[in-house]
Specification:
Elements: H1 3-15, H2 21-35, H3 39-57, H4 88-101, H5 107-124, H6 131-148, H7 153-156, H8 196-200, H9 215-228, H10 232-240, E1 246-251, E2 254-259, H11 263-277, H12 282-310, H13 315-322, H14 342-357, E3 364-366, E4 377-379, H15 382-395, H16 401-422
Helix pairs in contact: 1-5, 2-3, 2-4, 2-11, 3-4, 3-6, 3-12, 4-5, 4-6, 10-15, 11-12, 11-14, 12-14, 12-16, 14-15, 14-16, 15-16
Length: about 425
């Protein structure tokens, strides 16, 4: 490491407070946004990192047990050889960082965060040795990475590109870039907690129809009318919950993309805000992060299974074909089938988990979107935030109401299943 970098770390250590588990999760989130992963991929990364943090910390605290035996195919975690020499909070932070390095592209960005953490720690505790804790954290991260190798992610990477279905109802690529289908095999991944029954137990979409006054047509016409008459507040809501990790936009002949946080990342950051507001301890927070991140990942696996099972076209395709060829959605339509709504599924699942873990009727201000130039919004419960996240997809013109409603029901069902399984 160069002298100037060491000097920077030294002065950072003088002024920076000790890194917390919240900082570690936020650091990982920043790198995920920087590296531009798909929304499903982000949920997988968050889950393994959060699991690593919790599993490294749990042996140091009474009443907190490993998820091994409850999470699907999860192996037993390594135990520290010399328990009294382990700083378990530091171990959780380091295990989160070490695990992230196995999943993201910009490993050096995570390494920089670890270097700052270690320098800060050694400055604050000059008589402590961190080496046993580092060795222990690495062993947890290694076991978590090994576990991830059997979740079918690797085996789905070389599968062929998605083949479009030639049916009137079927999904077709949409503008402005008409991208290929995103993660068509994500439903084949092994979930963290749910089983096949929970994955597939979802209502069917409305029967496709182009007849006026048919339920499907009415769903589409509602999107059309709503987006043509959006209020300033509705536009703010759509923008706030957009959470499209890589939305391509065209201005004249210029093309540019906006990096944003994903739905899973958005909800983890909401958790961080409220966990700190409610003064949850480090181990309590690590538990909530792990449970929430795994629930989000499972909700997305189930949602993506539904998307490519039912293969339903987006409102953009239907409206331009059967109602108004000149119509444009307010938000950029993501490149995957419509049914069900991923944000509705994840948000309902997240709000159910957070209400269970933290409580109901908690006033909080969600400021995560401030980094992207979008004003914070305040909610009086997790469920109210989830409801707004769901309806935002109607305002954005990217989902039918039925996809939002049934997605939310499915997400809640997934969360309740996981709550019972992990008690």
């Amino acid at each position: 490491m160069k002298y100037c970098t060491l000097l920077l770390l030294f002065f950072t250590a003088q002024i920076k407070a000790q890194t917390t588990i919240h900082d570690a999760i936020h650091d990982v989130s920043d790198v995920i946004v920087h590296d531009v992963f798909t929304a499903p991929a982000t949920s997988r990364i968050y889950a393994y990192c959060a699991f690593a943090a919790y599993e490294a910390m749990a042996p140091g605290y009474t009443g907190f047990n490993s998820f091994a035996g409850k999470a699907n195919a999860m192996p037993l975690m390594p135990q520290p050889e010399n328990k009294e020499k382990i700083d378990y909070e530091a171990a959780g932070i380091l295990a989160c960082y070490f695990t992230a390095q196995s999943f993201i592209f910009s490993e050096q960005l995570i390494e920089e965060k670890m270097d700052v953490f270690i320098a800060t720690y050694q400055n604050q505790y000059p008589n402590k040795t961190l080496e046993p804790t580092i060795i222990y954290a690495k062993s947890i991260a290694s076991q978590i990475e090994t576990w991830s190798h059997s979740d079918n992610y690797i085996s789905t990477r070389p599968l062929p590109r998605y083949t479009l279905i030639n049916e009137p109802y079927a999904w077709q690529p949409t503008g402005p870039d008409f991208a290929d289908a995103n993660e068509p095999y994500w439903g084949k991944l092994r979930p963290f907690f749910i089983d096949s029954t929970t994955i597939h137990n979802i209502a069917k979409p409305l029967e496709f129809s182009i007849q006026k006054d048919a339920p499907f047509y009415n769903d589409a016409f509602e999107v059309y009318q709503t987006t043509n008459n959006l209020t300033a507040e509705q536009k703010q809501i759509a923008d706030f919950w957009d959470d499209n990790p890589y939305a391509v936009t065209y201005v004249g002949h210029m093309q540019y993309a906006k990096k944003k946080i994903s739905p899973a990342g958005h909800w983890l950051n909401i958790a961080g805000i409220v966990l700190q507001q409610q003064h949850f301890s480090s181990i309590q927070s690590a538990y909530v992060y792990a449970l929430l991140a795994a629930t989000n990942a499972d909700a997305i696996i189930a949602c993506w299974d539904a998307k490519y099972t039912f293969n339903l076209m987006r409102p953009e395709t239907y409206i331009k074909t059967y109602i108004d060829p000149a119509w444009q959605p307010y938000l950029t339509t993501p490149p995957f089938p419509e049914y069900t709504s991923g944000h509705s599924t994840v948000s309902a699942a997240s709000s159910t988990i957070l209400t269970y873990c933290i409580g109901d009727n908690l006033l909080f201000t969600d400021s995560i979107e401030s980094a992207y130039g979008i004003a914070p919004r305040t909610f009086n419960s997790f469920h109210k935030a989830a409801e707004e996240a769901g309806i935002s997809r109607l305002y954005g013109g990217i989902h039918f109401r039925t996809a939002m409603q049934n997605g939310a029901k499915h997400g809640e069902q997934i969360a309740l299943f996981i709550i019972q399984k992990t008690k």
